[in-house]
Amino acid sequence: MNAKIVDGKALAAKLKSSYSAQIEDLKARGVEPKLAVLMVGDDPASEVYAGQKKKNCEKLGIAFEMDRLSASSTEEQVLAALQTLNDDPTVTAIMVEMPLPKGLDNNKVQAAICPEKDIDGANPVNLGLLASGLPCMRACTPSAAIALAEEAGVDFKGKKVVVLGRSVTVGKPAALIALEKHATVTVCHSRTVDLAGETRQADVLIAAIGKPKFVTADMVKPGAVVIDVGINSTPDGLVGDCDTEALMSVASAITPVPGGVGPVTNAKLIGNIVEAASRRG
Ligand code: NAP
User: Fold this and answer.
1) What's this model's pTM, rounded to 2 decimal places?
2) Does 126 contact ligand 1 (Cβ within 6 A)?
3) Separation of 91 CA from ligand 1 center, angstroms?
4) Separation of CA 213 and ligand 1 centre (Å)
5) Whose CA is nearest to atom 22 of ligand 1?
6) Measured CA distances, 96 to 59, 102, 130, 132 (Å)
7) Does domain 30-114 have CATH number 2.60.120.10?
8) Ligand 1 in reach of 193 Cβ (< 6 A)
9) Which protein residue's CA is at the shortest distance from atom 2 of ligand 1?
10) So where are the chain's domains?
11) Which positions are annotated as binding NADP(+) (predicted)?
12) What does the pLDDT average to over 45-49?
């Protein structure tokens, strides 16, 4: 078997072009989408990510605002800045760049973004709504992972999905979305006994653990679709959580790193900005 490489850049381009039409529609109705990114401190990776968001927004005609606070800001100052953005009627979408400087509580900060503007689905209210099967802002990376599996031809109904990783930002929401699509879902983590025994049962394996090339050929069922969420910086460059080369002869489809989940996550962020603005409109 020679696995099909699922092209994230192509899917991202397709999604962005449909969002572009929706943005035109919104503007025609007098609704102006606007993203505000709050950056606390000057983490270099966050600078790059925020810059990418600015570029993506500008390309699609979405207004962009960057608000900066120093790394020594207190929790009260960060929460006050978010309250100002929550109250600003011209801001339709808010995102806080992570990681926050030491001493600030991620959960408290993310919970302070009003759920309707929370385009990263990071507020616990949005995760709760997702778990309840209600409309909400969904985290972009898990949505991207699911969309890529569907792009590879997966119909989740009745499929056995194994999610490797149980983080609030990726693993848990990915499991909930697959469950909503009628898959039978197993979530594995660092305390899972016989991890390979679990992953070998997966029709769809979603790997999100942050360990370079962790998933090897013997952990994958022949013909499985593998979605590699991991982004790991190594001396050989960026690699995923899967040993892509080894999996090529076992899986039926696999997402590359880079060029898989990453670009679709960026596109889904635009999708959430459009959704937040249309709900307000
Ligand atoms: P995280 O918060 O560190 O969570 C990692 C999860 O993996 C945890 O649930 C952990 O289990 C589990 N885990 C770690 N080592 C394990 C092991 N040896 N065996 C089994 N489970 C193990 O990471 P995350 O934020 O979910 O991110 C995961 C990966 O996705 C990272 O590489 C990250 O860079 C990447 N990512 C990519 C994108 C994108 O746009 N492509 C976006 C976000 C994240 P415990 O809970 O038991 O500790």
Assistant:
1) 0.97
2) no
3) 31
4) 13
5) 190
6) 21, 15, 21, 25
7) no
8) no
9) 167
10) 30-114, 138-260
11) 165-167, 231
12) 92
Is residue 278's pLDDT more than 90?
yes
- What's the rounded Cα separation, in Å, for the pair 155 and 177? 13
Q: Is the pLDDT of residue 132 over 90?
A: yes
Determine whether the shortest distance from the Cβ of 22 to ligand 1 is under 6 A.
no
pLDDT at 106: 94
Average pLDDT, the chain: 97
* Known binding-site positions: 165-167, 231
Q: What is the DSSP string of the chain?
A: --PEEP-HHHHHHHHHHHHHHHHHHHHHTT---EEEEEEES--HHHHHHHHHHHHHHHHHT-EEEEEEE-TT--HHHHHHHHHHHHH-TT--EEEE-SSPPTTS-HHHHHHTS-GGGBTT--SHHHHHHHHTT---PPPHHHHHHHHHHHHTT---TT-EEEEE---TTTHHHHHHHHHHTT-EEEEE-TT-SSHHHHHTT-SEEEE-S--TT-B-GGGS-TT-EEEE---EEETTEEE-SB-HHHHTTT-SEE--SSSSHHHHHHHHHHHHHHHHHHHH-
Q: How many Å apart are CA 127 and CA 224, to the nearest integer?
A: 28
Domain spanning 138-260: which CATH class is it, in words?
Answer: alpha beta
- Spell out a b/e string for 260-274, using b for 16 or more CB atoms within 10 Å of the CB, else e: bbbbbbbbbbbbbbb
Q: How far is the C-alpha of 200 from the C-alpha of 222, rounded, in Å?
A: 9
Residue 280's pLDDT is what?
81
